């Protein structure tokens, strides 16, 4: 247990550093990089050497930053918390890492000490995709068709706390009306502009 804890700690440190470097200091990806580093080595946390742990975690976090930006800009996936990039893509990479860098190790437990192979890890990845991604995609698609996947744009602008609970849970931060500065320098309320933009994106 101590060795696993040590491995996870190293992985977080490496991922944290990688996220900071690869995102050029972006706070979101710096913190998410730490988590991505842990996820990248979790499947082999009991067998990886510290030096290998650091390298794999660093690579996993760098991959998470890249794939997160790619899916945002190219796939147009609305992944506000980076869950798909960090847990999905990097999770699959971590499973593949185990097949590459720990091939031949016995799995132990109830499996009868079957040895780790790349093929076995690929089968595991395919199983995860079938059970998690496809089922999640179908459910999300159905919710979208029923117009239940997102809150209305008015609620997004107002904030979920006010819309659901009728209270602002952060009174120290005074809310102010958002404005957008147009090309001629005039300020206009942001709400109508954002609603029009959101409608165009949804229709597009």
Task: Give your account of this protein's structure.
- By secondary structure, this protein is mainly alpha-helical.
- It is built from eight helices and two strands.
- It has helices spanning 2-22, 27-41, 50-73, 83-101, 118-145, 153-158, 160-165, 190-203, and strands at residues 179-181, 187-189.
- Strand 1 (179-181) and strand 2 form a beta hairpin.
- Helix 2 (27-41) packs parallel to helix 4.
- The longest helix is centred in the middle third of the chain and has 28 residues, at 118-145.
- The protein is elongated and about 65 Å long.
- The mean pLDDT is 85.
Entry keywords:
65% helix; 204 residues; mainly alpha; 2 strands; two-stranded antiparallel ribbon
List the helices and strands and how they pair.
Elements: H1 2-22, H2 27-41, H3 50-73, H4 83-101, H5 118-145, H6 153-158, H7 160-165, E1 179-181, E2 187-189, H8 190-203
Helix pairs in contact: 1-2, 1-3, 2-3, 2-4, 3-4, 4-5
Average pLDDT, rounded to a whole number, is 85
What is the straight-line distance between the termini? 51 Å
Shape: elongated
Q: Name the structural class.
A: mainly alpha
Count of helical regions: 8
Oligomer: single chain
Extended strand count: 2
Biggest sheet, strands in spatial order? Answer: 1-2
**Domains (count):** 2
Stretches where pLDDT is under 50 for at least 5 consecutive residues are none
Q: What proportion of the residues is helical, as a percent range?
A: 55-70%
Helix and strand element order: HHHHHHHEEH
Rounded to an integer in angstroms, the radius of gyration calculated over CA atoms is 22 Å
The largest β sheet comes out as:
2 strands, antiparallel
Q: What percent strand?
A: under 5%
């Amino acid at each position: 247990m101590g060795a696993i804890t040590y491995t996870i700690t190293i992985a977080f440190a490496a991922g944290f550093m990688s996220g900071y470097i690869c995102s050029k200091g972006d706070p979101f990806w710096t913190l998410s990089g730490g988590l991505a580093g842990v996820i990248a080595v979790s499947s082999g946390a009991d067998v990886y050497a510290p030096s290998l742990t650091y390298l794999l975690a660093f690579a996993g976090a760098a991959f998470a930053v890249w794939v997160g930006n790619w899916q945002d800009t190219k796939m147009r996936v609305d992944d506000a918390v980076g869950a798909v990039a960090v847990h999905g893509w990097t999770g699959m990479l971590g499973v593949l890492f185990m097949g590459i860098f720990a091939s031949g190790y016995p799995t132990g437990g109830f499996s009868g000490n079957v040895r780790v192979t790349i093929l076995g890890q690929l089968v595991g990845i395919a199983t995860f995709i079938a059970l998690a991604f496809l089922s999640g995609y179908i459910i999300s698609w159905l919710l979208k068709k029923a117009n239940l996947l997102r809150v209305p744009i008015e609620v997004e602008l107002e904030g979920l706390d006010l819309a659901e609970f009728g209270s602002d849970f952060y009174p120290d931060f005074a809310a102010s009306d958002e404005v957008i500065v147009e090309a001629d320098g005039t300020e206009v309320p942001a709400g109508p502009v954002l609603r029009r933009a959101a409608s165009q994106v949804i229709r597009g």
